[in-house]
Amino acid sequence: METLTLNVQGMTCDGCAAKVQKALQGVDGVSMVEVSLEQGKAFVTYDARSTNPEDLYAAVDDAGFDAGY
Ligand code: 9UX
């Protein structure tokens, strides 16, 4: 398993954090997600055989938040 910390911009309430959480958990290969609204970060544990950082950044972007590199 690999871990990645994403800097997520644009989360302003718990609902936003929940959306980011759901988006990341929906990516095949993701096993654990923790989102910190306060820190503006998402901590993801994933299987590198199934996904990669690019996919994870894209999932956050698709959910309407900016996880730019
Ligand atoms: Mo809160 Mo975020 O009311 O997408 S859910 S601002």
From TrEMBL:
Keywords: Metal-binding. Residues 2-68 form the HMA domain. The lineage of its organism: Bacteria, Pseudomonadati, Pseudomonadota, Alphaproteobacteria, Acetobacterales. This is Heavy-metal-associated domain-containing protein. PANTHER family: P-TYPE CATION-TRANSPORTING ATPASE. InterPro entries: Heavy-metal-associated_CS, HMA_dom, HMA_dom_sf, MerP/CopZ. The keyword Thylakoid does not apply.
